[in-house]
Amino acid sequence: MAPEPDDERLILDPTAERKPLRRRPASRTRPVAGPIGLVDISKPRGDVFLDEIERLLRERSPGLELVRLRKPTFTKPAPADLRDEVTRRCRVVIQALAD
Amino acid sequence: MGFPPPPDAPAPPLLLEDLAGGSLALSLGDQSTLLFFFKHDCPTCDLTAPLVERLAAELGPAGLAVIGVSQSDASESATFIARHGLHFRVALDAGLDTSAAWDFDAVPALVLLSREGRVLEAFEGFARADWLRLAERAAGQVGRPAPGLEAPGQRLPEHRPGCGSRAHDPEIAQRLAVRRGAARLAARRVRIPAAEDPQEWLAARGVDDGLPVVPPTEARVLRMLEGTSRAAAEVVALVPPDLAPATVEKVAINAVMAGCRPEHLSVVIAALEAACTDEFNLHGVLATTYFATPVMIVNGPIRRAIGLNCGGNVFGQGFRANAAIGRALQLVVRNVGGGRPGEVDMATLGQPGKFTCCIGENEEESPWEPLHVERGFRTEQSTVTLFAGEAPRAILDQASRSARSLATSLGLCLEAVAHPKLHGYGEVVLVVSPEHARTLAADGWSKADVRRRIQEVTSRPLRACLPDEECAEGIPLEALPAEIRGPDGRPRPEVLALPVPKFRRDDDVLMVVAGGSAGKFSAVVGGWVGGRMGSIAVTREITR
Predict the structure, then answer these.
(1) Among the listed residues A65, A74, A72, the one whose alpha carbon sits nearest the alpha carbon of residue A93
(2) A14 and B189: CB-CB below 8 Å?
(3) d(CA B356, CA B376)
(4) Contact B217/A17, CB-based, under 8 Å?
(5) Please, where are the H alpha helices in chain A?
(6) DSSP string spanning B268-317?
(7) Nearest-CA residue of chain B relative to A1?
């Protein structure tokens, strides 16, 4: 059946449609500059993956400031204080999950 | 299509469900078909059902397909079937799309289709003559004699009115209209994921102004479009800074988001037309680091028709028409034109009117002709005047009892616009409260008299308006006409005593009466760079 027109979730694009109506990613940093946050979302073995990322970053960019952070649980969005810490302390964030 | 359809009209497709809710593919065109549209609680349908059953029993075996199409739900339909002991196939018109496509007003509605799927007979309600003819033609289709519909000594009623088709129930009719109307909307559809709050989702896309927006669903946008007679696809303007085309539909979408009602839409459209003129220079108004933003002043009968506030708290909160119309224009500029703060909009401080700023002139309490009449329109026309303005600034005079004294106060306060030493200034809007207007009019002062006094009282010797050691701000030397400057570029000594009024022309003081009946306060809305270099107020007629 056709979607109901009064469906609150089906909306009409209010823009000039020159870009996709998506969240735009932040601009890339080049060259790699810190401080870089490595955020573990608390899935098993995420730390193993981030340890390896940290090792590679330290090897390739000595002196880079790295901040290790961890979400309490992967099942919920990051709590406000963690988001605040990320925005205060990090210029770039690498969020990783592993399974 | 209108009912009954003309003979030989092709049948619309049947989009039906079986009683278990599954979709039912019925192909017409293999055999002659009789359709019987009904609803369970219609006495005329009760009268009709046994006749349909009779035709099905007599002519079905010879090849006549009989399909009952129920407008009721599955259980109501089952009750109806049981009540009449029906043996022919009954399908559900659950969404009422098929009923709407046939466009009959009443049930029962009977349609006889040929083997080729073309209309042979169609009628609604009940008439004996219709039924006798239908029986003849249905029988003729399968090469049988017409079955008798009346037992001996019994005669069918001559006429019984039907009951209203459910496709015309207000709520359903509106839903069906939306579904049909949605096809003419061209905007890209976006589905908000089920896990997300629509308002949070929209905010994260940056299509808001910092406050929640109403999700622009198809139904809401279609209702909004009822506010204008213009076609949805018509381009209203190319909106700076991106010069993107704003169709009526895009304006309607943003008007929905802003909280407009359909009757507000024509004001938003006219305001957008005004904003996108060369004179108004929206690109400049947006890009400046100054405070300017479109300030809308509405005149004419539409103010009362849409409940636009012209009285107390006219610049304030609490009036939907004012709040939503001003906001809609800002959202169009942001979303269609791409004018966003921090990007093209480089305002240093901005001002709260950049959320919304729309007032009506209190024409009823004005002793003078309203703004739009001064600007060449007729009283009975409705207009919107767009002015690139800053936030309103208070002018207090509770003491003046004469026009001359009050106009002097107005002038002294107006001199402070932007900077007291900046004379030769462009347009401002002087919003005169009804009490102040009464004081001025009581002495017989016209708007022109007030303007003259403002120019008189603000006139300072050129010397006092020039940058000096005490204060480096003032009329820039390069702005002075060449003929009054000496070889060193500075004004010649003999012109230093010449009086320079605050405004280039008397008419640069646009005057409107607005606000509540009580209060000896007026307001000035300062402008941005006036004249050809900046922005000039633009008035457009509001047409539906």
Answers:
(1) A65
(2) no
(3) 27
(4) no
(5) 46-60, 80-89
(6) HHHHHHHHTSTTT-HHHHHH-SS--EEEEEEESTHHHHTT---STTTTSS
(7) B95
Residue with tokens 């407008």: B71
**Cα torsion at B243, B295, B415, B498 (round to 10°)?**
40
pLDDT tens figures, B406-450: 999 999 999 999 999 999 999 999 999 999 999 999 999 999 999
φ, ψ for residue A58 (rounded to 5)?
-65, -35
The structure tokens 């680091």 sit at B289
Give every CB contact of residue B356 below 8 A, 6+ residues apart in sequence: B258, B322, B323, B324, B325, B326, B327, B330
Q: Closest CB to A16: pick one of B192, B204, B338.
A: B338
Q: What gap in Å lies between CA B422 and CA B429, rounded to an integer? A: 17
In this prediction, residues A66-90 reach a mean pLDDT of 87
Residues of chain B whose pLDDT is less than 50?
none
Here the tokens at position B458 are 């603000």
Directed axis angle between helix B447-458 and helix B403-414, to 10°? 50
What are B163's two structure tokens?
């009951």
Phi, psi values for residue B371, rounded to 5°: -55, -45
Given an 8 Å threshold on Cβ–Cβ distance, is A5 in contact with B218?
A: yes
Question: How long is chain B?
Answer: 544
Chain B hits for A15, CB-CB cut-off 8 Å, are: 207, 335-336
CA-wise closest residue to B66 among B91, B27, B38, B34: B34
Does the predicted TM-score (pTM) go above 0.95? no
Helices (H), B122-188: 128-141, 170-182
Q: Which residues of A touch B217 (CB under 8 A)?
A: 5-8, 10-12
Cα gap B66→B114, rounded to integer Å: 12
> Which candidate from B204, B222, B254 shows the least CB-CB separation from A14?
B254
Mean pLDDT of A56-71: 91
* CB distance B308 to B366 below 8 Å: no
Strand B293-299 to B358-360 pairing: parallel
Q: How far apart are CA B93 and CA B71, in angstroms?
A: 5
* DSSP bridge partners of B24: B16
The whole-angstrom separation of Cα B207 and Cα B337 is 12
Other C-beta atoms lying within 10 Å of the C-beta of residue B449: 15
Q: By the 8 A CB rule, do B117 and B32 touch?
A: no
Let me know if B2 is exposed, middle or buried by CB neighbors in 10 A (0-12, 13-18, 19+): exposed
Those residues whose C-beta lies under 8 Å from the C-beta of residue A24, and which sit 6 or more positions away, are none
Residues B40 and B86 sit within 8 Å (Cβ to Cβ): no
